[in-house]
Amino acid sequence: MRSTHLDNGLKILVQELHTAPLVSVWCWYKVGSGDEAPGRTGVSHWVEHMNFKGTTNIPRDEMKGIVEKFGGTWNGYTWLDQTTYLETAGRDALDTLLFIEAERMAHGLYEPQECESERTVIISELQGGENDPDQLLDTEVTATAFRAHPYRHPTIGWIDDLRTMTRDDLYGHYRRHYVPSNATLVVVGDVDTEDVLRRAQRQFGSLNGGPAPLQTRPAEPVQIGERRVLLEREGTTAYLKFAWHSPAARHADFFPMLVLDAALTGAKGLNIWSSFRGAPPQRRARLYTALVERGLASAVGGSLLPTREPFLYSVGFTATDGVPLADLEAAATSEIERVREQGLTDEEVLRAKRQLRARLVFENDSVTNVAHQLGYFETVTGPGYFEEMPSHLAAVTAAQVADVAARYLARERRTVGWFRPLERKR
Amino acid sequence: MTTTVASGLTAVREPLANGAVLIVQETAFSPAVTINLAFRAGSLEEPDDRPGLAWFLGRVIDRGTATRSAMAVAEALDDRGVALRVSTNRHVLSLSCTCLSEDFHHIFGVLADVVRNPVFPEEEIEKRRAETITAIRQDLDNPGVRASEALQTLLYGASHPYGRPAKGTIASVERFTRADLVAFHRARFGPAALSIAIVGDVRADTALAAARDAFDGWDAVPAPNRPVPPVSRAAARQQAAIEMADKSQTDIAYGFTSISRLDPAYCSHWVMNNILGQFGLGGRLAENIRERQGMAYYAFSSFDPSLGPGPLVIRAGVDPANVERAIAAIDAEVGALGREGATERELAETRQYLIGSIPRMLETNQSIAVFLQTAEFFGLGLDYDRRLPSLLRAVTLEDVNAAAAAVLDPERACVAVAGSAFARGDGHASFGEAGSAFARGDSDASFGGQAPPSVPHH
User: Closest Cα partner for A30 from A380, A381, A384?
Assistant: First the structure.
């Protein structure tokens, strides 16, 4: 893998993989919902949408077909610390893909009527998410767990901000954050590294540099008491969620926490792109055997993702039909307390580490996914982290896992969410 | 490194003596192997009075064998980081997983044991029954699932295997017995109904030896396959509405019965569907509903041909106030494409896209395994990936327009909507309540253009 910079500050990562005649291009920006102030929540995600709506040199109507003419796929996503765009297509498309990303960085149109049209599309996206009680509960629990830090806002934003934000808000955010020194270009696939660097220089070299915006975020005060959320709406199924404040990716406690999560709920992908790909191996996981095998829950899942600043470790349960939430919560709490008091067995820790090692291999199964891994960790955690993950994982001990369980999973650091379905109203 | 995919797949196909078919593709992307075991044991094959049995068998099959307890199966997989996925569609029940290359032989042996010798312990049946009922109740709270399932029932009728619930109903699941599972396993699981795909960092001779070790001597004889019952096309427009309180968004599912995967017009219909609801961000449908009118985050069509005439389904999720406007927009696009056909430019762009996307369709071991097993299932041949470009190039504008004219007619559309309070006093008096508990039927394995288009998400 080659890592280099252009003079204007753009970072470029290139990895050659000649297994298929494909190339995957991703452009990453160090801006996400963690950089948003109240009143402007959702602006990063809306800007992402606008960056598919035409540029000076790519008319709106051609923006979406241009990659597909090469048989390609394209997308973008926004999360706490990052906004990113991707295309995977036949290798002959490389120049076009770099051109699109250079246009996107510098020449977005932000036509007022397109901003208005996208406002209702994004509100529709938000409303579609609200149809899922589990997702609704997640939003409420996250907003309750944080008091000060902007990680409390949903990435899509709060509805009133989406109704009032203006075209100038969007464009201002775009111009502040979409500068070469705030971006990383990642190219992986059937390419020649020197050729990629020459082409990237040609497409991006003339874009104006300038400083990356200074990003300071309010610190989250330590949580000193359990918080609770109760949602009651019409529905058929009850859900329970626990969330605890968790260490940032760069913190020494992060890898013991990952092993802890794998032992509790099964190892999954290590970032937001891959974590939802496929089920984790989990039938021997603590919370699966304690709750699903005992018939109290029909599903259990855990989530610990690498983030720049401390976020949340959450565990969610779907109550088996007819099981009261209080019974489910009592059983789940008792199992968590047992792990806090007694730690895990050496066998559980070994299994969790083996599972995580296998997951690292499974995730690198395509040029698209390799490119995502490189860009995600470069953007969220900084250089070197991705390469060092296997050795950090290997070094985790059972004592470290017991230690993080005891400290991080404390009752007073927990937020508990209930979704209790109401019977049909009419 | 090999460049197998660059020059087309080089899969090896080897029937075993007992009739099981093994397909192996070596790849060298990473030290991992994907294993897919597919049986012709989907919901079409379940007894008519046991809807959901095939799906339920998939939940219990890996919970204990003659020589391994449920815990021992879990240990054998979990300890190596393997997550076994069992999926059931109308025609096929498949077990698939990815393991490290070093674990291939061990994992393959466990899977073979699971499919040959399941014992369906009573205790496991009860646990999975409760989970399945919870899953059905979750579906009942999901407007997207409710609308899609109501549409399937409108299209095929509640008693047709394509129109009835894949997971079954709560009432049917409550009645399943261990004897039902044993009988279904005996009737449907045998080498003649099995295809095995192995894709990844493994040599073909190693894979073949493993398959012989695991399956030689298995002589169970599955019952004959059931034919797909006939499907009659809707003669007039049909509608269904399901009202659900506390939902922010209403889901629309709008569709037609279409063709079988083996129909010579398959590629014409595939291209037509791409133009209607896939290309760009959802074809003509999304251009109208999302881009011009800003009404929906998603609006697209999907096309799911199988052994019988599969559906062409249009989906959109909109504010309850916009349901009628969105359906009118779908009617307009469907009507225009059906009457007037596509343009030369649309055909050229779509053809270029579909041909160009073939290497990407074969990007991962899992997608190669699915492609090869689909080709095996429909008898398309091991060289199908190399023949596909010329099949697509042969599609003419007349072919696409004929496909559109054959399927797309708003007067004969089936339309189902599910969500909040859209039906109250806003002109949907003709919408009746659809039946309850239509569980989702997973789409049949097939490839090309069926996935929802990618959309910017958060």
Answer: A380
Q: What is the pLDDT of residue A214?
A: 83
Residue B179 above 80 pLDDT? yes
Identity (one letter) of the amino acid at B193?
A
Phi, psi of A165 (to 5 degrees): -60, 150
Cα separation of the two ends of chain B: 36
Residue B69 burial (C-beta neighbours within 10 Å; 0-12, 13-18, 19+):
middle
Identify the CA nearest to B198 among candidates B37, B65, B42, B337: B37
- Inter-chain residue contact B352 with A355, CB threshold 8 Å: no
Token reading at B219: 């002589």
The burial of A350, by beta-carbon neighbours within 10 Å (0-12 exposed, 13-18 middle, 19 or more buried), is given as: middle
Q: Which helix (H) or strand (E) holds A189?
A: strand A183-189
> A368: nearest CA in chain B?
B363
Give residue-wise pLDDT tens across range A156-187.
999 999 999 999 999 999 999 999 999 999 99
Whether chain B has a CB inside 8 Å of the CB on A209: the answer is no
Q: Which candidate from A236, A357, A364 shows the least CB-CB separation from B30?
A: A364
Work out the number of other CB atoms within 10 angstroms of the CB of residue A112: 12
Q: What rounded mean pLDDT belongs to chain A?
A: 95
ipTM value of the model?
A: 0.95
Reported as a pLDDT band with limits 50, 70 and 90, residue A277 is low
| pLDDT in the model for residue A271 | 72
Average pLDDT over residues A324-345: 98
If pLDDT is split at 50, 70 and 90, which confidence band does B433 have? very low
Q: Residue A274's pLDDT is what?
A: 64
Does the distance separating the beta carbons of B454 and A71 come in below 8 Å?
no
Measured between alpha carbons, how far is A85 from A103 in angstroms, rounded to an integer? 12
Q: Identify the burial level of B427 via C-beta atoms within 10 angstroms of its C-beta, where 0-12 means exposed, 13-18 middle and 19 or more buried.
A: exposed
Contact B245 A234 (CB under 8 A): yes
Task: Please report residues of A whose CB lies closer than 8 A to that of B289.
Answer: none
| B447 has a pLDDT exceeding 50 | no
Spell out which residues of chain B touch residue A73, defining contact as CB-CB under 8 Å: 357, 360, 454
Cα-trace Rg, chain B: 23
Those residues whose C-beta lies under 8 Å from the C-beta of residue A375, and which sit 6 or more positions away, are: A13, A26, A28, A84, A184, A186
Query: How many A×B Cβ pairs under 8 Å?
Result: 236
Q: Using an 8 Å Cβ cutoff, are B45 and A250 in contact?
A: no
Determine, for residues A65 and B31 on separate chains, whether the beta-carbon distance falls below 8 Å.
no
Res B245: pLDDT: 87
Of B1, B27, B458, the CB nearest to A78: B458
Q: What is the DSSP pairing of strand B250-257 with strand B238-243?
A: unpaired
Taking residues B81-103, what's their average pLDDT? Answer: 96
Contact between B318 and A365 using a beta-carbon 8 Å cutoff: no
| Among B249, B76, B316, residue whose Cα is nearest residue A351 | B76
Decide if A77 and B365 are in contact by the 8 Å CB cutoff.
no
> What DSSP string describes B56-99?
HHHHHTTS-BSSS-HHHHHHHHHTTT---EEEEBSS-EEEEEEE
CB contact under 8 A, B137 and A424: no
Helix (H, G, I), strand (E, B) or coil at A101: helix
User: By CA distance, what is A367's nearest residue in B?
Assistant: B363
Q: Tell me the nearest-neighbour CA distance from B132 into chain A, angstroms.
A: 8
Q: Which tokens belong to A315?
A: 């565990």
Contact of A71 with chain B, judged by CB distance below 8 Å, is answered with yes
Those residues with Cβ within 8 angstroms of residue A50's Cβ, 6 or more apart along the chain or in another chain: A108, A110, A114, A115, A118, A170, A174
Q: How far apart are CA B62 and CA B72, in angstroms?
A: 10
Q: What is the pLDDT of residue A269?
A: 84
